[in-house]
Amino acid sequence: MNTKADHSLKNISLKNIRKALRRYQNKEKAKILRRFFKTGPGEYAEGDIFLGVTVPVLRKLARQFKDIELKSVVGLLRSSIHEERLLALLILIIKYRGSSEKDKEKIYRIYLKNTRCINNWDLVDVTAKHVVGDYLRDKDKSALYELARSPFLWDRRIAILSTFRFIEDHQFEETIKIAGLLLSDRHDLIHKAVGWMLREVGKRNPKIEENFLKAHHKSMPRTMLRYAIEKFPEHKRRKYLSKT
What are the beta bridge partners of residue 81? Predict the structure, then answer.
């Protein structure tokens, strides 16, 4: 039976997705994004390629092409182009939300197998809690500790950002433990991520955040501390900062 829906599904291919994506490319925006996401020599995203497509457009395209086969999503995720990787991840989130438990596990494993492609903070931050965090809510969390100990920067960021999903459920244990593991991390992007998650814990349970800060604020990287106490009253912020 040749329905309109059947016909549209047959037309979902990597070639068609890439063609659609390039209708929205913007060279001037791409230049700005290359600077913003630190793609210069020696920077954390050295050599990454941008088309200059905005996130709202990528979300629209993700909804449009959500029915593409998983193997094609993986192909898109392994692209050298930043927006293609982000589009693939947005499609994975949509697929994950509409999947059975068995298929959710498949998507989760695809995500973890391809973390080398999830290689900038926006790619991690938009996706980690929705796939890794959500899948592990009621399961063994050992994978997060493996990620937290990884030499790969983005694995470590995935580890702490995935706990955002647990924080939303008022489950703070993993965030606190992984924050402890990352206290001595040398990268600013990990300091910011850990501080952000501690702040999110504090929004829901100030006592747990402050217990962590009392134990560690003197040895915490200053950026991590600043992010963690960002919403504190000014007098309390000054008190913590003066003791570092």
Answer: 49
Other residues' Cβ atoms within 10 Å of the Cβ of residue 127 = 23
Count of CB atoms situated within 10 Å of the CB of 242: 7
Residue 216 makes CB contacts below 8 A (sequence gap 6+) with 180, 183
Computed over every residue of the chain, the mean pLDDT equals 94
Instruction: List the one residue out of 74, 71, 165, 149 whose CA is nearest residue 111.
Output: 74
Can you give the pLDDT at residue 13?
87
What is the mean predicted confidence (pLDDT) over 66-91? 97
As a whole number of angstroms, the distance between CA 200 and CA 198 comes to 5
Cα separation, 226 vs 70, whole angstroms = 40
pLDDT at 219: 93
In the block, which residue shows the tokens 């924050």? 179
Cα 80 to Cα 42, 51, 86, 128, 201, distances in angstroms? 18, 11, 11, 20, 35
Please state, in angstroms and as integers, the Cα–Cα distance from residue 165 to each residue in 50, 53, 132, following that order: 29, 28, 9
pLDDT, residue 11, reads 59
pTM for this structure? 0.92
Angle at 74 between CA 83 and CA 153, to 5 degrees: 65
Q: Are 159 and 144 in contact (CB under 8 A)?
A: yes
**81 DSSP 8-state letter:** B
For the beta carbon of residue 42, count every other beta carbon within 10 angstroms. 6
- Please tell me the distance from the alpha carbon of residue 165 to that of residue 137, in angstroms, as a whole number: 7
pLDDT in tens, 182-218: 999 999 999 999 999 999 999 999 999 999 999 999 9
